Write a sequence for this structure.
């Protein structure tokens, strides 16, 4: 019998939802844009993820979709402040 790792991967991934994936992508993209030194790029990135958190259907966000909705609203409030206060 041949060992296939797919059931192990499937059991690991069943605990996560698209909201978790979006949160990890947000953190990774903000860390990736920090070396550029531009707050405007970080603000645009934050706005994009705020819209993504709000536009994602609730059925894909897991057991607590309201938490990810609040994150989206918070990002959409913070992003314009970052953009206006940026110099570059």
């Amino acid at each position: 019998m041949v060992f296939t790792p797919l059931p192990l991967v499937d059991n690991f991934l069943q605990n996560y939802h698209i909201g978790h994936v979006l949160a990890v992508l947000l953190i990774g993209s903000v860390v990736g844009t920090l070396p550029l030194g531009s707050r405007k790029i970080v603000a645009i990135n934050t706005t994009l993820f705020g819209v993504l958190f709000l536009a994602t259907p609730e059925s894909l966000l897991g057991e607590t979709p309201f938490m990810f909705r609040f994150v989206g609203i918070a990002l959409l409030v913070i992003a314009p402040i970052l953009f206006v206060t940026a110099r570059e």
Notes: The chain has a mean pLDDT of 86. Residues 13-85 form one domain.
